[in-house]
Design brief:
mainly beta, 56% strand
Length: 115
Amino acid sequence: VQLVESGGGLVQAGGSLRLSCAASGFTLDDYAIGWFRQAPGKEREGVSCIRSGSGSGYSTDSVKGRFTISRDNAKNTVYLQMNSLKPEDTAVYYCNAVRGVLGYWGQGTQVTVSS
């Protein structure tokens, strides 16, 4: 059972990145998925989440209108499309899969936005 994030990198302010969260060993569509981020010296915070099945996605106010969470069940992957990136979006981004008492975290992917 594994979650693997990818797609992070260095981008200029105003740019875009798409993060991927790929699952192995379980079906991601059966789980609620959250994207979290943690900047140096700060607590981990929730960014976006999506319900299991064909549920809707939600984003925190600071990224609403800029970030979009989505699923590709055929690829067993959840994405976080990040547009209009700002330097304050710089952080390690993690995905989290939850189903009842079961929960899994990925290892994280670094996103750095330069001004």
